[in-house]
Amino acid sequence: MSGRIAKRAFAARPSDADTWVLASETLSSRDADSRLFTARLTIDVTREQRGRIKVTAFRRGQTVADMLRDLLAREFPDKHGDPQ
């Protein structure tokens, strides 16, 4: 061997937010159903917050993921003002 091969970085810092967000839309050609929710978002909450979120979702008869997706759609509508 003639030396070390340069490693690729796990994630490169984006040049601008719009390019970074839209880049994931062109990476794969998965079927239509899997494109609905392809991004994972991780947040830190306290144990108490997590408990309240889970109990609220259970009482509403929905999953935590569905409840939080609805909340995020209301708080961050698409550019036309309509929740996605």
Question: Can you describe what's shown?
Answer:
This protein has 84 residues and is an all-alpha fold. It has one domain. The chain contains three helices and no strands. The protein has helices at 17-23, 47-60, 64-75. The longest helix has 14 residues, at 47-60. It is extended, with a radius of gyration of 19 Å.
Please render the helix and strand layout as text.
Layout: H1 17-23, H2 47-60, H3 64-75
> Biggest sheet, in brief?
none
Q: Give the averaged pLDDT, no decimals.
A: 76
Q: In total, how many beta strands?
A: 0
Strand/helix succession: HHH
Structural class: mainly alpha
| Helix segment tally | 3
Number of domains: 1
**What's the shape?**
extended
Kindly, what is the distance between the CA atoms of the first and last residues, rounded to a whole number of angstroms? Answer: 53 Å
Radius of gyration: 19 Å
Helical percentage: 25-40%
Beta-strand fraction estimate: under 5%
In the predicted model, the low-confidence regions spanning at least 5 consecutive residues are none
Short structural summary:
This protein has helices spanning 17-23, 47-60, 64-75.
List keywords for this structure.
39% helix, 84 residues, extended, 3 helices, mainly alpha
